[in-house]
Write a structure and sequence with these properties.
By secondary structure, the protein is of the alpha+beta class. The chain has two domains: 155 residues, Immunoglobulin-like (Sandwich), CATH 2.60.40; 484 residues, 3-Layer(aba) Sandwich (Rossmann fold). 28% of the residues lie in helices and 13% in strands. It is built from 19 helices and 23 strands. The strands form six sheets. Strands 1, 2, 3, 4, 7, 8, 9, 10 and 11 form a nine-stranded antiparallel sheet that branches. A five-stranded parallel sheet has the order 14-12-19-20-21, sandwiched between helices. Strands 13-22-23 form a three-stranded antiparallel sheet, with no helix packed on it. It is globular.
Length: 766
């Protein structure tokens, strides 16, 4: 770009704020502009470009349908789409690779493997076995969003995430003769705040470009970048000085609307079952014996399953390990799509604290133990932020100042199981204090209780009344997305009762840990589950509604509560029958319809549970003035966990090696896995969880001794396979999550954009 005139910002304050323009005959001339980085959570343009290409492929700005996220996901999951040249002659994979090379040169951002098969989120890695930590604005170690330089890799210096200093936009004149030489000028607006400068940018290199008020441009139809202050409005004047449009001029006001979206809740909001980087499995080794349904507890020594590569960094990686929070989560996907909506004159600042396993009690109001233990967090003063309740974490993120206070509002029922089973024990552990000896005793107690060592952080106490942070907010919440209640009522127990066969549970081959884990699920008696509806749920829902109003300062009409999908339908929309599809990683499981030996447990019981739960939650949402989001349910009717179709990808889903010959059965090896390909079913099976997540709560790395025992067949394979297949099972796939995100997207449009005018007034889901 050749700039004929540029005036440094420090000289601009002597210029008049309004300039005279003669009558304009600009006809169709106008200023087209858009925010460069509309989804601020992603720090680099290459990662944003992934979704932008998919958005353009489904229609871009002209898109007016109701399923944008699922349509985008179908593109992103299609390896052929990634390789196919698009309008600019380059394929998406070529365009993404070029962008990463550019970022390596500009920001020293290393490049990891570009393997579309492993899912689009894995592309953000910076090494073969790296994670995606540097690609986004969530600091997993410190559990904060603060300190993130969130535009163009931070090349323009510090730009706080919660309260941004600036937005970068691209301006271009459109209409007849717009490719003429023009002069762009900012007529008003604050061009300096403290040590920060704003204005038109002289050049494409953000690192070296000066911010100026006036700029001469050779071709006004090509993009000019501008740096705009947060919440500031600017009038831009465009005057054509030569060419077909010479003498014509117009003015236009621009302002970036930055929308703050917060997501809290459980595994259905965290993206459980969909790691950003799947576990790395050996493709030439197997672990035996395979404890198949036929072989039972003794195992079949002729066959083995793949297992995790015994090297550092090969475990599954997440946006947040403790919570199994993923970029594939429905709220994250909906926020990305909303950032592209209409004219893109807005940006989305997105905060998610959703955590797999969360309940209203231990999750939102009290600290929650991690679904998987991660590295110890750093200390900030005298507090650990690692296990902070989600409501407290939101307050902390948006706080003007920090403090702690007991929550004054509705309390739990005196007989609530959380009060009796957790709080008393939690108070005992916290009473150990913060001395070296106290921390050791707390760690010992956590080990005995199978908890992560950091639980419950360093909140003031685990008293019967929750203690949460308190503060006024630096900015209001524009939309709060919520998914909660399932774990309060026993989702894990219900799912387990539907698929776990109790008959072999007394087998002596099961070690104590596996026995306790599975037996605990199945022997949660129907009477206990029934009590929760009347004893626990009403008090917890009252606590939730009052807490959101008191602590988060959000208007009821801006709270969107998302309905749970039921996992247990087949491809015909019928309840799953007696089958082992997707469950043959262990001999302990199989879909169970109601039968006399099952104590009433089974698929129909599970379906009834979800129906009853959704009705009660919807009723509470309605009485509180919240918006109930259920537009995704039809997408799940024929796509439950047992749904399938006659395709090889659907039929062969568990690689098995014939040990004597070291040949994979049917030629299907871990290299053939496509964890994020489109399928008939929208839920993860136990097989999926073993092959994608391979989780184990206490340790990320398998000790070498454990692997040696496994390979020689001396390890209890029922334990190994069952424990690594549990995390993530019966949760929604990335494909299913995209349908839920569609519903969130549509329900959020009137909440976020109903008063913005312009192109936004046309936004709707048809």
């Amino acid at each position: 770009m050749k700039n004929i005139l540029k005036l440094p910002v420090f000289l601009l304050f002597s210029l008049p704020t309004v300039m005279f323009y003669g009558p304009s005959n600009a006809n169709d001339l106008r200023l087209h502009w858009q925010v460069d980085q509309p989804f601020r959570f992603l720090k680099f343009s290459s990662d944003m470009r992934i979704h932008e290409m998919a958005w353009e492929a489904i229609g871009g700005k002209e898109y007016s349908g109701s399923t944008p996220v699922s349509e985008m996901q179908s593109k992103l999951a299609d390896e052929a789409w990634w390789r196919r040249p698009h309008g600019n002659g380059r394929s998406p994979i070529q365009e993404y690779s070029a962008a990463r090379q550019n970022e390596k040169a500009l920001y020293s951002r290393d490049i990891g493997p570009v393997r579309v098969r492993s899912g689009w989120s894995s592309l953000a890695r910076t090494s073969v076995r790296g994670d995606i930590a540097n690609a986004h604005c969530w600091n997993e170690v410190e559990q904060v969003y603060s300190g993130c330089s969130s535009d163009a890799g931070g090349i323009k210096g510090a730009n706080e995430y919660i309260m941004p200093k600036r937005h970068i936009v691209t301006l271009a004149a459109k209409g007849s003769g717009s490719n003429s030489i023009c002069r762009m000028e900012m007529l008003d607006g604050d061009l300096r705040r403290g040590g920060d400068f704003f204005g038109l940018l002289d050049g494409d290199d953000l690192a070296s470009s000066d911010a100026v008020r006036t700029l001469e441009v050779e071709d006004c139809s090509k993009g000019v970048k501008a740096q705009l202050a947060f919440k500031e409005s600017y009038r831009i004047a465009v005057t054509f000085t030569s060419g077909p449009a010479s003498g014509q001029s117009f003015e236009q006001e621009i302002k970036v609307e930055d929308k703050l979206i917060v997501s809290i809740g459980d595994s259905f909001a965290s993206g459980e079952g969909n790691p950003d980087v799947p576990v790395e499995l050996y493709h030439a080794k197997a672990i035996a014996p395979y404890t198949s349904p036929k072989a039972g507890a003794t195992g079949d020594h002729n066959f083995g399953l793949p297992y995790r590569v015994a090297e550092a960094g090969t475990y599954a990686k997440w946006l947040d390990t403790r919570c199994h929070r993923s970029m594939y989560a429905p709220p994250t996907r909906a926020a990305i799509a909303l950032s592209f909506a209409a004219d893109r004159h807005h940006a989305i600042t997105f905060l998610t604290f959703a955590c797999s396993g969360a309940e209203i009690t231990n999750g939102l109001f009290w600290p929650q133990d991690g679904v998987e233990c991660s590295d110890q967090p750093v200390l900030r003063g005298n507090r650990r932020r690692f296990m902070e309740p989600q409501i407290g974490a939101v307050v902390n993120a948006l706080a003007r100042s920090q403090g702690w206070a007991k929550y004054e509002g509705p309390s739990l029922d005196p007989d609530d199981r959380f009060r009796n089973e957790e709080l008393r024990d939690g108070s005992r552990i916290l009473s150990f204090g913060l001395t070296r000896e106290g921390r050791k005793r707390r760690a010992d107690a956590n080990l005995q209780q199978k908890r992560c060592l950091a639980w419950p952080g360093q909140i003031p106490s685990m008293s019967m009344t929750p203690e949460l942070r308190r503060s006024s907010f630096v900015r209001p919440i524009d939309a709060l997305w919520l998914s909660i209640g399932g774990n309060d009522m026993g989702f894990a127990e219900i799912a387990a009762r539907a698929v776990l066969d109790p008959k072999p549970f007394n087998s002596q081959s099961l070690n104590e840990m596996t026995y306790r884990l599975i037996r605990g699920f199945v022997t949660t008696k129907e009477a206990e589950l029934e009590k929760r509806w009347s004893r626990d749920l009403p008090g917890r829902l009252n606590l939730l509604v009052a807490g959101l109003k008191d602590k988060l300062e959000v208007e009821p009409g801006k709270v969107l509560w998302v309905e749970y999908p039921s996992p247990f339908n087949d491809e015909n929309g019928d309840p799953c029958g007696v089958s082992r599809s997707g469950l043959n990683v262990t001999f302990l499981t199989g879909y169970r319809d109601n039968d006399p030996d099952s104590d009433g447990a089974g698929i129909r019981e599970a379906q009834s549970f979800f129906n009853q739960l959704n009705l009660k939650l919807a009723s509470k949402a309605g009485s509180a003035g919240y918006r109930w989001v259920d537009g995704h349910q039809n997408a799940y009717l024929r796509n439950g966990v047992c749904a399938s179709k006659n395709e090889i990808l659907e039929q062969v889903d568990l690689p098995r090696m014939h040990i004597p010959s070291r040949v994979w059965e049917n030629g299907f090896s871990p290299l053939d896995l496509k964890p994020y390909a489109d399928r008939q079913r929208y839920f993860r099976t136990l097989n999926d969880s073993y092959l994608l997540t391979h989780g184990f709560k206490r340790k990320r790395e398998d000790p070498p001794a454990l692997l040696r025992l496994s390979i020689t067949g001396k390890l209890n394979m029922a334990r190994y396979m069952a424990t690594r297949a549990i995390n993530g099972a019966f949760h929604v796939t990335a494909q299913g999550n995209a349908h839920t995100a569609d519903a969130i997207y549509c329900a959020s449009l009137p909440v976020l954009f109903d008063k913005d005018g312009g192109g936004y007034s046309q936004l709707s889901c048809k």
